[in-house]
Write a structure and sequence with these properties.
This protein has four helices and six strands; from the N terminus they run ααββββαββα. It is an alpha+beta fold.
Length: about 120
């Protein structure tokens, strides 16, 4: 789903108050908790960036919450950090049944940020 907004606060206000908003807020908290990234609107979704550019995008879709990163296999080649979560090449899909606390998503995000800051390629 796309939200035609200009600020992250407007994006959050536009979300329906359901399980997707709850999951998105949990993931958002992890992203902002790193202290490494700033939040903005990019491609009509939440974007997380530093001086080098945007690393993550976060968006509430109809049936899941999506965390986008160029190539997740460059961050987690073994798949251990995202085990049990529906993933595409550059998308991690969190469904209604996903319990963020039972995953290693925070470790995945931390590792992606570290690799990004060290100049490693995590893009497509």
């Amino acid at each position: 789903m796309q939200y035609d907004v200009e600020k992250p606060e407007d994006y959050l206000s536009a979300l329906e108050k359901d399980w997707r908003k709850e999951l998105l807020l949990e993931i958002r908290s992890i992203l902002l908790g790193s202290g490494e990234l700033s939040e903005s609107i990019s491609y009509k979704m939440l974007g997380y960036s530093d001086d080098e550019g945007t690393l993550f995008h976060l968006n509430a879709q109809k049936n899941y919450v999506a965390l986008y990163l160029g190539d997740i296999n460059k961050v987690d080649p073994s798949g251990e950090l995202l085990k049990g979560i529906d993933c595409g090449k550059g998308c991690v899909r969190f469904k209604k049944s996903t319990k963020i606390g039972d995953t290693k998503v925070a470790d995945f995000i931390s590792l992606a940020i570290t690799k990004w800051k060290n100049g490693e390629d995590v893009g497509c």
